[in-house]
Write a structure and sequence with these properties.
Order of helices and strands: HHHHHHHHHHHH
Strand content: under 5%
Structural class: mainly alpha
Distance between the termini: 71 Å
Radius of gyration: 22 Å
Helix content: over 70%
Largest sheet: none
């Protein structure tokens, strides 16, 4: 039996096993078996999932892993519909797996456009066609991540991925919105603040960019190799600010 068929058979078998286990348990016990903070009702509302997923309890991770493996097999085959459907199923069953959201969005935004291009006749495989596919799939990936953020609005990894996709599309306003909460954390990373400052500059907010960069400079070790780079960046941004006044 081909590997893909084996994976699909295992997924179906696991689903039947879990459904049988749920059927033999009191609904109240199943509904209360989850230990995580987001309720099944919230998952259902945000993801449009059926009542079954709210009853899986501790089996969620197992079944979502099967779905993700199926998606990986389809990714290797460059099967767009199969891969994306498996990603969506994995995040529906167990939305708490952040890596499913972030890697899934990356696949949708950065991999699938090239798969789409390869399906075209050779003469139509142009940069313009690829650009259209990239724009379309980036929008789909951002929409996908917005479903995650409806559940986990302060998740830094999801915000970071959304910001990266926005940057790849030249949507610096959206990227700024994604990086702003990352730069405002109690202990923000130097990386997040530097990217945030760059986005502020691109959006013409030079004064705010200087403030952010100066905060980075204060937190940078004296012997850090990036200290001079940040200082130079501050001076250039101040020059831009002076031109606008």
């Amino acid at each position: 039996m081909p590997f893909l068929q084996k994976v699909e058979s295992l997924l179906v078998a696991a689903m039947l096993f879990i459904c049988a286990g749920i059927a033999g348990s009191p609904f109240k016990s199943a509904a209360l078996s989850g230990e995580r903070s987001v309720s099944a009702d919230a998952v259902k509302a945000a993801r449009g999932a059926g009542a079954l997923w709210g009853l899986l309890g501790g089996y969620r991770s197992l079944i979502s892993d099967f779905a993700w493996i199926k998606g990986y097999v389809d990714w290797e085959r460059k099967d767009i519909s199969g891969c994306v459907s498996a990603i969506e199923l994995a995040t529906t069953i167990d939305p708490y797996m952040t890596i499913f959201w972030t890697q899934g969005a990356a696949i949708i935004a950065f991999d699938t456009p090239h798969w789409m291009l390869q399906k075209l006749p050779p003469a139509q495989r142009t940069e313009a066609a690829l650009r259209i596919f990239k724009s379309r799939q980036a929008a789909a990936a951002i929409k996908f991540l917005d479903k995650a953020l409806a559940l986990f609005p302060n998740n830094g990894e999801i915000l970071l991925q959304k910001g990266q996709i926005a940057i790849s599309e030249g949507d610096f306003k959206l990227a700024e919105e994604c990086y702003a909460p990352l730069a405002s954390l109690p202990e923000p990373t130097v990386y997040a603040r530097r990217i945030y400052a760059s986005l502020l500059v691109k959006n013409g907010k030079f004064g705010k960019a200087v403030e952010v960069l100066e905060s980075v400079l204060r937190d940078t070790e004296p012997d850090s190799p990036i200290k001079k780079l940040i200082a130079d960046q501050i001076e250039k941004t101040k020059a831009l600010l002076k031109k606008t006044n």
